[in-house]
Amino acid sequence: MRKLVCALAVAVAAAGMAAGPAAAAPAPAAEAPRAAVTCGTGVPVATTGGYRVLLHCPGVGYVSGAGTTAADADTRARALANTSAATGRACTTGAVNTTTGGYLAVVECGGLPWVFGKGTTLTDAAYLAHLQASDAMSSGKVCSTGTTNTTPGGYLAAIECTGLDWLIGRGTTLTEAALFARALAVDALASGRPCSSRSSLATAGGFQSDLECRTFTGSLRVLAVGTTLTDAASESRVLAINSLATGRVCSTAGNVAVPAGYRVTLNCGSGPWASGEGPTLSEAARVARGNAY
Question: What is the value of pTM for the model shown?
Answer without folding.
Answer: 0.86
